[in-house]
Design goal:
With 370 residues, the chain is an alpha/beta fold. Strand 6, helix 7 and strand 7 form a beta-alpha-beta unit. Helices cover 45% and strands 18% of the residues. The protein is elongated and about 65 Å long.
């Protein structure tokens, strides 16, 4: 029986993004093992190893996690080790050095390098040298957008570099519904039929930069516009954005919904998806919104550019340019033919990013390693 080990920092990463891969290998008759932190249960795996891995490179627990991983890898006799997340990628690749000499193949998926065009100099000084060294310990480096792929091919040292369309979105859950169904959902969830609903699904933190959206809401409502912003995601910034909404007088127009299990419904009943992040690899929230027929208005970064063709299925505006974002949102509201065209284009464009297509891409990657 062949064996594969998946490694990441937390179990949630696998739960939300990689269970189809687990299922694929189980159907192939492989043993599927997982090493990560966190408590969430994971289906489609044979052995779940809980390790002491932490997100911060400076955390001393990572030394313990490295030793745990090394033993797991040494004892496991794996054919493939597929690692994800920055620390998962670092620790697994170092721990697997000895086994690579015996034929184990090591795969790393870079979900968006921390060094990129326009990134702070510190990011380049810290993360690029690390990834350069790590890439020499990598049999296959998977990138998820064109910019990272081009850079990795030219400057990194993995034996093979490929690009796949991210982790994919679930087309069984995220799809466009009729206007009548949308009205019904709004009634059920208590939202007005007259409001233009904007939605951003992302945890609240500095990188996701929800303050840009709150400032845009201030501009949108100054002239009496009937807009509501739904911010869906856990608050990891100690109420900073909630306080900002209050300071700008838009608390009654911004709903902080926290972590939700009904994200699909909330996206389907919305009108426009927005995104304000400073850095993205290839964001699933944008894929899901487009699949539901929502035009998008997004801040300019490589992940957003990979999904949004400005003027085709949405708009891209400069980072932190809340005035430009407000203007683009207003244009979509006021120009219904443009809205309908962008909605159609969004649905058509995003189909190649479905989980089904991504699984086929990954199957080709894995088969090239066997």
């Amino acid at each position: 029986m062949k064996k594969i080990l998946y490694v990441a920092t937390v179990a949630e990463h696998f739960y939300y993004f990689h269970l189809p891969c687990f299922k694929l290998f189980k159907e192939k008759g492989w043993q599927v093992d997982v090493a990560c932190g966190g408590e969430r249960e994971l289906p489609f795996c044979d052995n779940r190893f809980k390790i002491s891995i932490k997100r911060s490179p400076a955390d001393k627990e990572n030394l313990k996690a490295y030793k745990e991983l090394k033993k797991i890898i040494r004892d496991g006799g794996y054919d493939i080790i597929h690692c994800h997340t920055p620390m998962g990628g670092i620790l697994a690749r170092i721990a697997a050095r000895g086994e690579r000499k015996k034929g184990t193949k090591v795969v790393y998926t870079a979900h968006g390098f921390h060094f990129y065009k326009g990134a702070p100099a510190l990011n380049w000084l810290v993360y690029y040298p690390i990834e350069l060294v790590m890439s020499a310990m990598t049999d296959c480096l998977i990138t998820i957008n064109d910019e990272d792929f081009a850079f990795a091919k030219k400057h990194l040292k993995a034996k093979k570099t490929v690009k796949v369309n991210g982790v994919g979105y679930n087309s069984d859950k995220f799809f466009r519904i009729s206007d009548d169904e949308k009205r019904k959902l709004r009634s059920e969830k208590g939202f007005s039929q007259e409001e233009t609903l904007l939605i951003y699904v992302a945890e609240m933190n500095e990188n996701k930069n929800q303050s840009m959206l709150i400032r845009a809401m201030k501009k949108l409502t100054e002239d009496g516009g009937n807009y509501r912003l739904l911010i869906v995601g856990a608050d990891n910034i100690s109420g900073k954005y909630v306080s900002l909404a209050s300071e700008l007088g838009v608390s009654d127009r911004v709903d902080f919904l926290g972590h939700r299990e009904d994200v699909c419904t909330l996206v389907q009943l919305s009108d426009i998806a927005v995104g304000s992040s400073l850095r993205e690899g290839l964001p699933v929230n944008v894929m899901e919104a487009m699949a539901c027929g929502l035009p998008v208005v997004l801040s300019d970064n490589r992940g957003h550019r990979a999904l949004c063709r400005d003027g085709y299925n949405g708009f891209v505006v400069a980072p932190n340019d809340d005035e430009a974002m407000a203007k683009r949102i207003k244009k979509l509201k006021e120009d219904r033919p443009l809205y309908n065209t962008m909605s159609e284009n969004a649905v058509g464009f995003i189909k190649t990013f479905s989980k089904e297509n991504v699984i086929e891409e990954l199957k080709a990657v894995y088969e090239s390693l066997e």
